[in-house]
Amino acid sequence: MLKMNCGLSRKIGQPDYGSRGAQVHLEVELSAELLKDPEKLRRQIRGCFGVVRRAVDAELGVAGPDDGEPARIPEEKPAARAPADPPSTEKQVRALHAFARRAGADLAAELRRLGVTDAAALSRRQASGLIDGLKERGGGR
């Protein structure tokens, strides 16, 4: 028997420099016969990571595709903006454009996903979440 340990820990940014996270770690026993078929072993490993990734995404309430793309922050339409969530700032709008360029992301498509056509129409919370997602994708600081 082989023992395989698989784990994932993820944090997502929240407004006002907060974050929330989740982690899952699994230990499974596999047949030693898998050593004779490296591709089958790799499929078992990928499958385990897929299960762990989906569990973490579900715990955080985010949708993450299985192709390794970073998880996306759930959509929040501008019409649902709470009075306590003011409009995005000029600095946030500039940051959105800069991080989108660094990540090679289509900012217009990201904005459409959130139901707006202009970054200035986002709430501060939405802009902050999108900035964090773009930073993660682009390796930004």
Describe this structure in words.
The protein is an alpha+beta fold and 141 residues long. It folds into two domains: 2-60, no CATH class; 78-138, no CATH class. It is built from four helices and two strands; from the N terminus they run E-E-H-H-H-H. The protein has helices at 38-60, 90-103, 107-113, 124-138; strands at residues 2-14, 18-30. Strands 1-2 form a two-stranded antiparallel ribbon. Strand 1 and strand 2 (18-30) form a beta hairpin. It is elongated and about 60 Å long. The chain starts with a strand and ends with a helix.
Topology:
Elements: E1 2-14, E2 18-30, H1 38-60, H2 90-103, H3 107-113, H4 124-138
Keywords:
141 residues; 2 domains; alpha+beta
Taking strands numbered 1, 2, ... along the chain, how are they ordered across the largest sheet? 1-2
Nearest-angstrom radius of gyration?
19 Å
Number of domains: 2
**Overall number of strands:** 2
* Gap from first CA to last CA: 43 Å
Relative helix content: 40-55%
Low-confidence stretches: 66-82
Overall pLDDT level: 79
Structural class: alpha+beta
Question: Could you give the order of the helices and strands?
Answer: EEHHHH
Q: Which of globular, elongated, flat, extended, rod-shaped describes the shape?
A: elongated
| Major sheet size, sense and barrel closure | 2 strands, antiparallel
Report strand %: 15-25%
- Total helix count? 4
